Amino acid sequence: MIPGVNPRQMKAMMKKLGMKSEDIEGVEKVVIYTKSGNYVFDNAEIVATTMQGMTTYQINGEPRFEEGEAEIPDEDIALVSEQAQVSREEAKEALKAAGGDIAEAIIKLSE
Protein backbone atom coordinates (compact mmCIF):
# COMPACT_ATOMS: atom_id res chain seq x y z
CA MET A 1 0.00 0.00 0.00
CA ILE A 2 1.25 3.51 0.82
CA PRO A 3 4.30 3.76 3.13
CA GLY A 4 3.56 5.33 6.52
CA VAL A 5 -0.21 4.81 6.26
CA ASN A 6 -1.92 2.43 8.64
CA PRO A 7 -3.45 -0.42 6.57
CA ARG A 8 -6.65 -0.23 8.64
CA GLN A 9 -6.99 3.51 7.87
CA MET A 10 -6.28 2.83 4.21
CA LYS A 11 -9.10 0.26 4.03
CA ALA A 12 -11.48 2.72 5.72
CA MET A 13 -10.56 5.47 3.21
CA MET A 14 -10.99 3.08 0.28
CA LYS A 15 -14.40 2.01 1.59
CA LYS A 16 -15.51 5.66 1.83
CA LEU A 17 -14.44 6.17 -1.79
CA GLY A 18 -16.38 3.09 -2.89
CA MET A 19 -13.21 1.15 -3.68
CA LYS A 20 -12.82 -2.56 -3.10
CA SER A 21 -9.44 -4.28 -3.22
CA GLU A 22 -8.86 -8.02 -3.37
CA ASP A 23 -5.71 -10.16 -3.60
CA ILE A 24 -6.07 -12.95 -6.14
CA GLU A 25 -4.58 -16.07 -4.58
CA GLY A 26 -2.91 -19.05 -6.23
CA VAL A 27 -1.69 -17.33 -9.40
CA GLU A 28 0.94 -19.49 -11.07
CA LYS A 29 1.60 -17.52 -14.24
CA VAL A 30 0.46 -14.36 -16.05
CA VAL A 31 1.24 -13.94 -19.76
CA ILE A 32 0.82 -10.69 -21.69
CA TYR A 33 0.81 -11.38 -25.43
CA THR A 34 2.23 -8.75 -27.81
CA LYS A 35 3.11 -8.78 -31.50
CA SER A 36 6.84 -8.91 -30.77
CA GLY A 37 6.69 -11.52 -27.99
CA ASN A 38 5.25 -12.35 -24.59
CA TYR A 39 5.83 -10.96 -21.11
CA VAL A 40 5.66 -13.85 -18.64
CA PHE A 41 5.27 -13.34 -14.89
CA ASP A 42 5.83 -16.51 -12.85
CA ASN A 43 4.35 -16.56 -9.33
CA ALA A 44 3.00 -13.03 -9.74
CA GLU A 45 1.02 -11.23 -7.06
CA ILE A 46 -2.24 -9.87 -8.47
CA VAL A 47 -4.42 -7.24 -6.81
CA ALA A 48 -7.86 -6.47 -8.23
CA THR A 49 -9.23 -3.03 -7.37
CA THR A 50 -12.84 -2.15 -8.18
CA MET A 51 -13.97 1.47 -8.25
CA GLN A 52 -17.13 2.85 -9.85
CA GLY A 53 -17.88 -0.47 -11.52
CA MET A 54 -14.48 -0.78 -13.22
CA THR A 55 -11.94 -3.37 -12.10
CA THR A 56 -8.22 -2.72 -12.47
CA TYR A 57 -5.64 -5.49 -12.09
CA GLN A 58 -2.15 -4.81 -10.79
CA ILE A 59 0.60 -7.34 -11.48
CA ASN A 60 3.57 -7.42 -9.10
CA GLY A 61 6.57 -9.54 -10.04
CA GLU A 62 9.55 -9.82 -12.35
CA PRO A 63 8.64 -10.47 -15.98
CA ARG A 64 10.75 -12.29 -18.51
CA PHE A 65 10.38 -11.57 -22.20
CA GLU A 66 9.94 -14.45 -24.65
CA GLU A 67 10.41 -13.66 -28.32
CA GLY A 68 7.31 -14.63 -30.24
CA GLU A 69 6.63 -15.78 -33.72
CA ALA A 70 4.02 -13.77 -35.55
CA GLU A 71 0.80 -15.70 -36.02
CA ILE A 72 -0.19 -15.92 -39.67
CA PRO A 73 -3.96 -16.27 -40.26
CA ASP A 74 -5.07 -19.24 -42.37
CA GLU A 75 -6.94 -16.89 -44.71
CA ASP A 76 -3.68 -15.05 -45.51
CA ILE A 77 -1.85 -18.34 -46.16
CA ALA A 78 -4.65 -19.50 -48.49
CA LEU A 79 -4.67 -16.19 -50.38
CA VAL A 80 -0.88 -16.15 -50.90
CA SER A 81 -0.87 -19.84 -51.85
CA GLU A 82 -3.60 -19.28 -54.45
CA GLN A 83 -2.21 -16.03 -55.89
CA ALA A 84 1.41 -17.25 -56.13
CA GLN A 85 0.37 -20.81 -57.05
CA VAL A 86 2.55 -22.42 -54.38
CA SER A 87 1.94 -24.86 -51.54
CA ARG A 88 0.51 -23.68 -48.22
CA GLU A 89 3.87 -24.39 -46.55
CA GLU A 90 5.73 -22.18 -49.05
CA ALA A 91 3.11 -19.46 -48.64
CA LYS A 92 3.41 -19.60 -44.84
CA GLU A 93 7.21 -19.34 -44.96
CA ALA A 94 7.01 -16.40 -47.38
CA LEU A 95 4.53 -14.63 -45.09
CA LYS A 96 6.82 -15.17 -42.08
CA ALA A 97 9.78 -13.78 -44.03
CA ALA A 98 7.68 -10.78 -45.10
CA GLY A 99 6.48 -10.10 -41.56
CA GLY A 100 2.90 -10.96 -42.51
CA ASP A 101 2.79 -8.58 -45.50
CA ILE A 102 0.63 -10.40 -48.07
CA ALA A 103 1.65 -8.32 -51.09
CA GLU A 104 5.36 -8.67 -50.35
CA ALA A 105 5.03 -12.44 -49.88
CA ILE A 106 3.20 -12.84 -53.23
CA ILE A 107 5.78 -10.68 -55.05
CA LYS A 108 8.72 -12.66 -53.61
CA LEU A 109 7.12 -15.98 -54.53
CA SER A 110 6.29 -14.78 -58.04
CA GLU A 111 9.85 -13.70 -58.87
Automatic annotation (TrEMBL):
Q: Which InterPro entries match?
A: NAC-like_UBA, NAC_A/B_dom_sf, NAC_arc, Nas_poly-pep-assoc_cplx_dom, UBA-like_sf
Question: Oligomeric state and partners?
Answer: Homodimer. Interacts with the ribosome. Binds ribosomal RNA.
Q: Name one GO biological process term.
A: protein transport
Q: Which family does it belong to?
A: Belongs to the NAC-alpha family.
A GO term for molecular function:
RNA binding
Q: Where is the NAC-A/B domain?
A: 4-72
Q: Does the keyword Transport apply?
A: yes
Role played? Contacts the emerging nascent chain on the ribosome.
The keyword Transport is assigned to this record: yes
Which protein, by its recorded name, is this?
A: Nascent polypeptide-associated complex protein
Matching Pfam families, A to Z?
NAC, UBA_HYPK
Provide this UniProt record's keywords sorted from A to Z.
Answer: Protein transport, RNA-binding, Transport
